[in-house]
Design brief:
globular, seven-stranded mixed beta sheet, alpha+beta
């Protein structure tokens, strides 16, 4: 993968000194190369080719200096604790999975030090990701998930941004199918983007979701 040269001068600042932050979708060109390069160099999971619907974000300070990269993609196919919290049966999960997004990468650049920055960035993106998803793919997402490796992280920024811990993985993999633990154990966090997220994630069958959204629009 091509790695771009970049400034690594230390940034030690208060959040007020960096705001207002600029959150930008990454669509292509040099910005996409930079996004991939930074994740590949500095995220412990590196950059991995993403398949399916996804949103990429770069976050800059008020001077246009890069601070963070975030990648949201397709949700894990099966997760017992998550599915139980939502109230999904197998068929409902199959129908509703595309309305749930997974924050699979979150990188605050290693030379950036700023208290509360990580949770503040999450809050900014969660305000707009449902509309961004609708504009890009023709439908919103109603909830976001993430998986925090317990041996490495405490999930502090997710807790501070009011994500809900709903359980812990068994270590059998993102898509299931294994009977013994083969991967690190991770805490499971969800962030509902709508008060009725359970209802929206379990609506299924031909035309039901479209009819529901039409009724909602008609009430406004």
């Amino acid at each position: 993968m091509k790695h771009l040269e970049h400034n690594t001068a230390p940034i030690h600042a208060k959040l007020s000194e960096l705001r207002p932050l600029n959150v930008q979708q990454v669509c292509g060109g040099k910005e996409l190369i930079q996004f991939k390069s930074l994740l590949d160099q500095y995220h412990y999971l590196h950059y991995d080719r993403n398949i399916g619907e996804n949103m990429k974000y770069m976050v800059y300070d008020r001077e246009g200096i890069p601070l963070a990269c975030l990648l949201f993609g397709s949700a894990a196919w099966s997760c017992r604790e998550r599915d139980s919290y939502i109230g999904w049966n197998k068929n409902e999960r199959t129908q509703g999975l595309s309305f749930l997004a997974n924050n699979s990468r979150y990188l605050i650049l290693p030379w950036v030090s700023c208290s509360h920055l990580a949770s503040h960035i999450l809050s900014l993106i969660l305000r707009e990701i449902a509309d961004d998803w609708r504009q890009k793919y023709g439908h919103p997402v109603y909830c976001v998930e993430t998986y925090v490796e317990t041996g490495r992280f405490k999930g502090t920024c997710y807790k501070a941004a009011n994500w809900i811990k709903v359980g812990t993985t068994t270590g059998r993999g993102r898509d299931g199918g294994h009977h013994t633990a083969i991967l690190p154990v991770k805490d499971i966090y969800l962030y509902p983007l709508a008060a009725n997220f359970r209802e929206m994630l379990t609506l299924q069958g031909s035309g039901i979701l479209e009819q529901y959204e039409e009724r909602q629009v008609g009430r406004t």
